[in-house]
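Page header: ASSEMBLY MODEL / two components / 625 residues total.
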Amino acid sequence: MVAEQQPDSLRFPAARVYPSRFRMKTHMQQQRVLRAWLSAALAGLLWVNLAHAQSGVKVALDEVVDDRFSEGPLRGSLQVGFTIDGKDIERVSAARIIIKEAADDRGQSLVLKGDPPDFSPRDINGGKLSVRLANPSRRSKSVNLKGAVELFVPSRDPAARVRVEKPLSQLDKPLTTKGLRAAKLNVTLLSRQKYNEKMKSQKLDATGIAEIRARGKAEGASEEEINKAIELIKALQELGGGEVPEGAVVISASSNDLDRIHRVEILGADGQPMNIVSRRTSSFGKEATMILQPSEPPSAKAVLEFQLLTDKARVLVPFDMKNVALP
Amino acid sequence: MLRLTILAMTLILLPAPETVAQKKKVKAPAMAAPAQVNVVRVNDRRGGEPFQRLELVIELPTVPSTGVSAGRVLLRSAVDDSGNNLMEETQGEPALGSLSVARRGDSTRPAALSFTLASPLRNATSVREVRGEIELYMPSRDANSVALLPKFMSSKGKALSHKALKANGVEIMVLSEPQYEAEKKRLADLKRKEMVKEEYSEDTIASSIEIFLENFLAPEPNDVVVKIKDPKKVIQEFSWIDSSGGEPKRLNTREDNGLTFLFTWEGPPQPDWALRVSMLTPKNVVRFPFVLRDVPLP
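Prediction written out in full:
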């Protein structure tokens, strides 16, 4: 379970400065708002102002794009953008939008099947977040959105950062670090030879194809789209995964474990994160691989720092936006 | 993976890069019979300025894509069913050459083109009417459409000779290194004269000439520098064909002080490659009027 609370150390908004057509309240905040109303009435203030003064992070609606396609292989979507800001924003490493309910004003649900989006680091795309929904009816004028912004705040949990000393001397065997053990994460750094062997063993078989078909269907893809995806995977496999570049760090784990790792940094001799020119993650069945390519080969003394998406480090800031106008 | 597939498809459907076809002075071709046109895709991208627009992809079922090298849609009027004008205010004439890459050379599919309109109102349910003309560049209709110049790199310093170039009044010369240096010197001297006339200081003139030579007349390693005379602006496209005679590699062009730089991102041409020059002629450019009515909006 992810914390749905507002610890004293990091307060999240009870309200934000939305355009007047939006409201945003958490369940707990609703009670707080009631109290705030009374206080504000006494103080002669609006609750919005009082609540905003308490906010550590606030969420605002950004751009709404309704990208509509006629029948065919290309599918449209409603893309809703958000921004987050506030005095505690610097403590937020990453965030994502989780939609619980979304419907147009004709009652048509817009929620797409599938996993929620990955956490988006704050230093990407100016910290903007977005979520993809189904196209609303053309005749609708607005949508209602209910969900949460999930924040990753590693400073809230010491266990969210795990350092592994001299990991490059521990290739091809699971990393044994207290922090990783505590997090129940099974992670192995692969040598180039082991990586190549692993790639060769990962060929798309009947089971794999069945899994792709099932997943494609669950996500609403057409038979044609699924077939194209399978062909593409086969073609890519024939090309091979490519050689691991010199100096690259290859991290192997189960897909579930890798999903719990937000980011991995290679710390150089100065203790600072090295410049990573390329980060690639791929999965095959239940196994996943992450390849980090630093701008120069790391030394044998390099340290790996794992940023883990622990429950304590994740904070949900629910929102309830009504009558979001459609373009 | 599905996202990857869609991305790959989107990339395939991207318009081809623009070539020299953008500044045509060629007389508008005669109009042929109205074209049979099918709408194959409508994309109404609403919001997200400046990318908000309505895009229609149309297919010409009676025109095989193999015969068409380029095309464009010249719009005359467009209106949605609420009476809203869909002609974009700033819309100029699109360049010939925007034929979807996926269709070129695919003999199993008819020619397809796309065009964009202004965003219709949300409460509109269809495009009531679009009127315009479709212009197609069909090189096979004229023997003088294409000049194929084998081993052109060995003809540096001489005017390239081909009957199609002559018929279209085009002269092309690949500059040799000494010619290029001489041309640079001539242009620098010309610039110097102008600046002296305008009474600039000697220091300013020297630094300006240096910047001019370094920044404006500096070919990249892959560039082939040519001098072109094309008074009727008929050159549509340059491409290279390698020694295997495979798919032509379309070239990008950059013009600078009367010189043209031909290049691709894939590297310089090899000595045994051919240069292909595609040209517009009255015979190979065809225009069809068309009308679309009641196109449902997604």
